[in-house]
UniProtKB/TrEMBL annotation:
<dbReference type="InterPro" id="IPR055170">
    <property type="entry name" value="GFO_IDH_MocA-like_dom"/>
</dbReference>
<dbReference type="InterPro" id="IPR036291">
    <property type="entry name" value="NAD(P)-bd_dom_sf"/>
</dbReference>
<dbReference type="InterPro" id="IPR000683">
    <property type="entry name" value="Gfo/Idh/MocA-like_OxRdtase_N"/>
</dbReference>
<feature type="domain" description="GFO/IDH/MocA-like oxidoreductase">
    <location>
        <begin position="135"/>
        <end position="259"/>
    </location>
</feature>
<dbReference type="InterPro" id="IPR052515">
    <property type="entry name" value="Gfo/Idh/MocA_Oxidoreductase"/>
</dbReference>
<protein>
    <submittedName>
        <fullName>Gfo/Idh/MocA family oxidoreductase</fullName>
    </submittedName>
</protein>
<dbReference type="Pfam" id="PF01408">
    <property type="entry name" value="GFO_IDH_MocA"/>
</dbReference>
<feature type="domain" description="Gfo/Idh/MocA-like oxidoreductase N-terminal">
    <location>
        <begin position="6"/>
        <end position="119"/>
    </location>
</feature>
<dbReference type="Pfam" id="PF22725">
    <property type="entry name" value="GFO_IDH_MocA_C3"/>
</dbReference>
<dbReference type="GO" id="GO:0000166">
    <property type="term" value="F:nucleotide binding"/>
</dbReference>
<keyword id="KW-0520">NAD</keyword>
Length: 388
């Protein structure tokens, strides 16, 4: 292999086109475009004109067998990510799958198990927000115990307003059989991943989900989910695609501090000098009087820090590509191992399942039951074949 990884881009849509541009613009110095695959003749013509000298294919298996590439990135509909990932790995080609890793855990588990049988190959997922220095720093703070044990988390993320024209743009979009869901599988996977990456995987979820609430679609466009971490700790996740104003606010309350993130750009980190319960138990009625009168000096009990990083557009995606190539070339640890992709899919599945059943669902839910209910929705649409 050369000192640059030859990447095969499968799908030259918005994401694939963006990655190709990053590479040709030199933002990924250890990678080059080895080949491009797209089933659309117009996209193939565009690829040939834009990237002269790069082989262009109409079938990804032909590209995988060509010898032109060392690795692939799967910029295709969600259902195809596991299938193409396995096809690449089976030919000893490294695989970077787009988010989400798949639509349902059964197919993602199959991908993970196959990847585990090929430990010599690099298997990653495009969780570019794990390359966001703000969220990397917040994970360090939580992991180091700087705000104590987590008591409650809340994330309201409604900043992706989508008008009806967006949903009308493609036959497969916002369908059970073509896309596999709505906001949970399209817009929110990065937040579902970060939420668990930083705060831990919950034990169960209860969800209220509206399907076609404010848009003429079959899938979800409004979600409110409550999760249980055990030991009394809870969390909420609210997302939608009809909020034209939009909110992005993430809070993590610990027993010795709190993190509040606004707009995924600025975090206020409050650290208590003692655990909240110790402070509570140390206060007498005079302290309570001062509290009620607004005279309690909170600086005696806590400190506040603002965490903020400049974020250049594209740097996070390009950084994941560069890290993936570095893992292939010299074993640099992956920012986002592909096996982690199942966490967000599992939580999205549990949210759907909870809403379909009308009750609380454990994260160890019956995968066959979920797939059976998903196939019921696919059958009702009457557009696509059922999934196995």
């Amino acid at each position: 292999m050369s000192k640059k990884v030859r990447l095969g881009i499968i799908g030259l849509g918005q994401q694939g086109g963006m990655y190709a541009k990053f590479i040709t613009d030199g933002l990924v110095p250890n990678m080059e475009i080895g080949a491009i695959t797209d089933t659309d003749p117009a996209k193939r013509e565009l690829a040939a004109a834009t990237y002269p000298g790069v082989k262009v294919y109409d079938d990804y298996t032909a590209m995988l067998d060509s010898g032109d590439i060392d690795a692939v990135v799967t910029c295709v509909p969600h259902y195809l990510h596991p299938e193409i990932g396995i096809a690449a790995l089976s030919r000893n080609i490294h695989a970077l799958v787009e988010k989400p890793a798949g639509v349902y855990t059964k197919q993602v588990k199959e991908l993970n198990e196959f990847a585990a049988s090929k430990p010599e190959l690099s298997f990653a997922i495009m969780f570019n927000q794990r390359n966001n220095p703000l969220y990397q720093r917040l994970k360090e703070i939580v992991d180091n115990g700087e705000i104590g044990s987590i008591l409650r988390t809340n994330w309201i993320i409604t900043t992706w307003w989508r008008p009806q024209g967006y949903y009308n743009s493609s036959e497969w979009r916002a369908t059970w059989g073509g896309e596999g869901g709505g906001v949970l599988v399209n817009q929110a996977p990065h937040q579902l991943d970060l939420w668990q990456w930083i705060c831990g995987v919950p034990k169960s979820v209860f969800a209220k989900v509206s399907y076609g609430f404010r848009r003429d679609i079959a899938v979800e466009d409004e979600v409110t989910a409550v999760v249980d971490y055990g030991n009394g700790a809870t969390g909420t996740f609210v997302t939608a695609t009809h909020d034209m104003v939009g909110t992005d606010r993430f809070e993590i309350l610990g027993d010795q501090g709190k993190i509040v993130v606004e707009g995924s750009k600025t975090a206020t980190v409050t650290r208590m000098k003692k655990k909240e319960r110790e402070i509570s138990e140390s206060m007498g009625m005079e302290d309570v009087r001062k509290l009620f009168m607004g005279q309690l000096n909170m600086d005696d009990y806590l400190t506040t820090e603002t965490v903020e990083f400049d974020s250049v557009w594209g740097a996070q995606h390009a950084g994941v590509l560069e890290n993936f190539a570095a893992n292939i070339l010299d074993g640099t640890p992956l920012l986002a191992p592909g096996s982690d992709g199942i966490n967000g899919v599992r939580l999205a599945n549990a949210i759907h399942l909870s809403s379909w059943k009308g009750g609380e669902v454990g994260l160890d839910f019956d995968e066959d039951e979920f797939l059976g209910l998903l196939n019921e929705h696919i059958r009702d649409e009457g557009k696509y074949a059922e999934r196995k």
